[in-house]
Specification:
The structure is a homodimer of 187-residue chains. Chain A is 41% helix and 25% strand. In chain A, strands 1, 2, 3, 4, 5 and 6 form a six-stranded antiparallel sheet that branches. Chain A has two domains: 129 residues, Jelly Rolls; 39 residues, no CATH class. The longest helix of chain A is centred in the C-terminal third of the chain and has 11 residues. Chain A has 187 residues and is of the alpha+beta class. In chain A, strand 3 and strand 4 form a beta hairpin. In chain A, helix 2 packs antiparallel against helix 4 and helix 8 packs across helix 9. The interface between A and B is medium-sized, with 13 and 13 residues. Chain A binds a DNA duplex (30 and 30 nucleotides) through helix 9.
Chain lengths: 187, 187
DNA sequence: CATATTTATTGATTTGGATCAAGTGCTCAT
DNA sequence: ATGAGCACTTGATCCAAATCAATAAATATG
């Protein structure tokens, strides 16, 4: 159950066996049914989450009621609204299960306790912040075609897991454009 | 001399008179001549800076040797490569004086001493990170016209201080496009 | 199972901004 | 002061992606 989250945190620093068992003792298990929300707009993100199994989408809704997909997450990804979590201000995002998902939760109080108990946990929240640069694909200086190629190379699971309309939104293009890119139409 | 930086940090938390004088005792004064660099690509950002007087540009150079302006800073702005500062890894940016500038410097060691001395300083580095979202205008979902309007509304000094070619680069558009937007050409 | 709705594909057209190009006016260095 | 290069503007053209439109395929719902 905890194997995958343990290997994930080991990437963030050196942890003793005691650190690890303290860590796992703080975790809560969440079963999130398809389409249910882990966080809704206006709520404060109080926890770090680890997606053990399933798939999760983070999106916002703009003034014209259009959805913009911010993150598409699959097994072994961390889930957080880093901005809301660190500032403890209301989130602008919805975090929703796309498939039925099993999620491990570490709340902010537990994280503080871990940090008090072992300096190794200090970098955890910080490192996770760096794992989530805003709009990694959308913002970039890359063309739509290059953004898709980059996603395909770095996160093939995302493409296998989510519908094309969400992937298009995540990549900052229209579904028609993504469809044409995938069909290999010449420039 | 220190008035403006003192009012700036007061916005980040409650500081006692002792906090403030300890803080100012740690500051170094830098006079940076026009076109000189505060930081060059490959160097690690070791300090927080406060632009007391003058103007500073942060930019990167891409693989095609094209410059991309990342930040345009005027009096009373903080200056930092947050990513390099927190990770202590080499910066990808150049930080250069556009006009002759007076800058106050607080290095990372002094910041750590301040944090040890008073918990109020703990949020300083963190808050500054939030002051610098990556590419606030470039990334956005806004059109070039809207990005310019947004800059004009929120940072008119930037438009008065820097040449249009840098503003265009900062806003992620070509100088010709910015010129046309400013001339009020209909869509 | 049947039908309604959503998702994906494909085609035609439009369009915003880039690119290419030329001319004007500054600035800075000699 | 003078000339060489920048910076900015303006015009013409091009192009990638958006938009509009229609259909097919997949999925959900009664």
């Amino acid at each position: 159950m905890f194997d995958s989250i343990i290997s994930s945190i080991k990437g963030f620093g050196n942890f003793t066996e005691e650190d690890i068992s303290l860590f796992t003792s703080k975790l809560q298990v969440i079963n999130l049914a398809k389409n249910n929300f882990l966080l809704e707009e206006g709520q404060v993100c109080q926890s770090l989450y680890f997606l053990y199994e399933g798939s999760v989408r983070i999106y916002m809704i703009d003034n014209e009621s259009d959805e913009h997909t911010h993150e598409l997450l699959t097994a072994n990804d961390w889930i957080i609204d880093y901005e809301s979590f660190t500032s403890q201000k209301p989130s602008g995002y919805f975090i929703q299960a796309f498939h039925e998902s099993k999620i491990l939760e570490l709340n902010v109080y537990s994280l503080h306790e871990l940090i008090k108990a072992s300096a190794s946990f200090f970098r955890l929240g910080k490192v996770l912040g760096h794992e989530f640069p805003d709009y990694p694909y959308k913002n970039s200086l890359l063309s739509p075609r290059e953004r898709y190629a980059s996603l395909l190379a770095s996160k093939p699971m995302v493409i296998q897991t989510f519908p094309m309309k969400y992937i298009a939104s995540y990549l900052g293009m229209r579904p028609e454009t993504l469809s044409r890119i995938r069909s290999g139409i010449r420039i």
